[in-house]
Amino acid sequence: MFNKSWMTKIGVVAGLAMAGGVASAQSNGPTGISVRLGVFLPTGTVGENIGHTWFAGGLDYKINTVPVSAPTAYAGMPSYLSISGDYYEKGGDRAIPVVLNYNLRVKNYVFAVGLGAEDTSYSGGSSTIGFAGQVAASYDFTGMTLPVFLQAKYFFSGKDEFRGVGLFVGARF
After folding, report:
1. Phi/psi of residue 27, nearest 5 degrees
2. Band (14; pLDDT cuts 50, 70, 90)
3. pLDDT at 19 over 50
4. pTM (2 decimals)?
5. 124 CB burial (10 A radius; 0-12, 13-18, 19+)
């Protein structure tokens, strides 16, 4: 009934939903949830998808139950942990990285670095689970009822063809 790909997607959504239960407000909207949609641009050296634009989307859950202090050099700049799940695909090739991020807010900017795991699969049917990492920079637009942001994110992957840049528009709830 469900293949491995669907089971992975269901697992990612369930994990992120559970994390949402411990997320709450501070600097990222009342729930601590961020949603984004955009494109992924592969930068690896392998595969026919290099140079093409892929569909991409993701969720972040801010974890306030774990106190995090910015290093002394960054006093007065809120920092926090978040769980991030992304999805990008084109032509049956796809990656779903799930990472734990350290975030640092500087006025309207949020900088993040994260490590975790990803599920990758190819249109031919093969699938693997491996290393995932990412770095991101976001700009929040202020003065809106719903906090909106732009984000650029670099995805590191254990598979060369799944490394690349994500460009997103999102909202913080």
Report:
1. -95, 0
2. very low
3. no
4. 0.78
5. exposed
Least confident of 45-59, 109-123, 144-158: 45-59
Q: Is 145 helix (H, G, I), strand (E, B) or coil?
A: coil
Any idea which residue has 């050296």 for tokens? 45
Q: Locate tokens 């309207």: which residue?
A: 108
3-state secondary structure of 161: helix
Sign of CA dihedral 47, 134, 132, 63: negative
Tokens of 1: 């009934």
Q: Is residue 165 within 8 Å of residue 39, measured between CB atoms?
A: no
Residue 151: CB atoms within 10 A of its CB come to 21
CB burial of 14-50 (b: ≥16 within 10 Å; e: otherwise) equals eebeebbeebbeeebbeebbbebebbbbbeeeeeebe
Size of the chain in residues: 173
Strand partners, 164: 42, 155
With beta carbons less than 8 A apart as the criterion, state whether 32 and 73 touch.
no
pLDDT one-digit tens code per residue, 65-114: 666 776 665 667 788 899 999 999 988 889 999 999 999 888 899 999 99
The residue to which tokens 């920092």 are assigned: 79
Q: For residue 73, give the 3-state DSSP assignment.
A: helix
